[in-house]
Amino acid sequence: CHNIFKDMTGPALSGLEERGKWADHKELLKWVNNPAGYMANDPYTQSLKPKYGLMTGFPDLVQKDIDDI
User: Fold this and answer.
1) Where does the pLDDT of residue 69 fall: very low under 50, low under 70, confident under 90, or very high at 90 and above?
2) How many Å apart are CA 67 and CA 40, to the nearest integer?
3) For residue 12, which of 48, 36, 58, 63 has the smallest C-alpha distance?
4) Over pLDDT 90: what percentage of the chain?
5) Contact predicate 6/44, CB 8 Å
6) I want to staple 17 with a disulfide (CB 3.0 to 4.6 A). Which of 23, 29, 42, 66 is the partner?
7) What is the mean pLDDT of the chain?
8) CB neighbours (10 Å) of residue 16?
9) How many helices (H) and strands (E) does the chain have?
10) Which letter does DSSP use for residue 17 in this model?
């Protein structure tokens, strides 16, 4: 769904930590685990929905997985 350098089904991952709250990987994990729930209270992720739709959640990923990605 994501490419490092270009937008695809989801936004490019390059520069991810400069967008939204993603420099805090705990916030990123909350988003990845439950995008719909996170989006309900986050204007940045709400702004992504018109272009990309709603991301599939990955509730089984843990912090180490996010940090490795």
Assistant:
1) confident
2) 24
3) 48
4) 93
5) no
6) 23
7) 95
8) 15
9) 4, 0
10) G
Which pLDDT tens digit goes with each residue over 16-38?
A: 999 989 999 999 999 999 999 99
Torsion-angle region of 31 (φ positive above 0: left; ψ -120 to 50: alpha; else: beta): alpha
- Output the pLDDT for position 24: 96
Q: Cα separations (Å) of 62 from 1, 26, 43, 48, 51?
A: 19, 10, 24, 23, 27
50 CB burial (10 A radius; 0-12, 13-18, 19+) = exposed
Give first-to-last CA distance, the chain, whole Å.
13
CB-based contacts of 6, cutoff 8 Å, min separation 6: 12
